[in-house]
């Protein structure tokens, strides 16, 4: 089968969506299919530019190229999934969240834009058309499926997949630090973790990894932590793959406190490393996997609750180890595989 994967991309930015697309492409090729990844640049500011991206995607019809028929189109992200194809399947990473669950929130971009409401309505109409013309609609998680049903009245099925390089993660004796990986921005809520550390009764330490999406936010966090927490906080910035695997293996536990994450590889990477996960009750994707008090802690999204969870893990290393082992067993029992994903998308 000849398959095209379509995805939107911010130039010079690489994250989970890009890794997912690359792994899907590799799995399709390994299964004997001809496959290509087609990406389109997407600029969302000012708000009116969103409509330009929608129009550009909608004008593209990719059922054939250079005389060769394309059998299947797999759409991943807005607005690329608006491209037309008679046999299109959605594997939805997420919609344009500013038009849906983030509308009116402090971190939503559209609700305060002069033309925001009009752009939001156009996104809703375009999404409805794209979903209706699709052969099937899948998502990457229960959280994305729930949003699609809540805001669009569309049923879909989650197709879960392993994180990149799942076979490379290893387990080692825990050392005296928690790991908090991820891009540094307000939606990942590293500020909540810093506030929690200020309330910890123990001497809990945290190593943060990831590059800043918001330099001002990152600079403010660095100033606050340096002034108040000293050596209890380390900002590592970007790390190599080998360094990442080493930090996962050696940490005491992994902190994952985003706002309503779509999926998030960090939770699964922690489980593969046999580490307990501390997350929040509004963190979305991690809640598919973290069992409160069994494989980690699900805390209220406030600094005092997060501090209490950190203190409990810091002060009871045996329980932290047992939770981590339970997380690894749970990951293995889930049986995620790329082969199952491809089978579903090409059915």
TrEMBL record:
GO molecular function: glycosyltransferase activity
Listed SUPFAM superfamilies: UDP-Glycosyltransferase/glycogen phosphorylase
Residue stretches making up the Glycosyl transferase family domain: 173-327
Pfam families assigned: Glycos_transf_1
Keywords: Transferase
Name of this chain's protein: Glycosyltransferase
Keyword Coiled coil: no
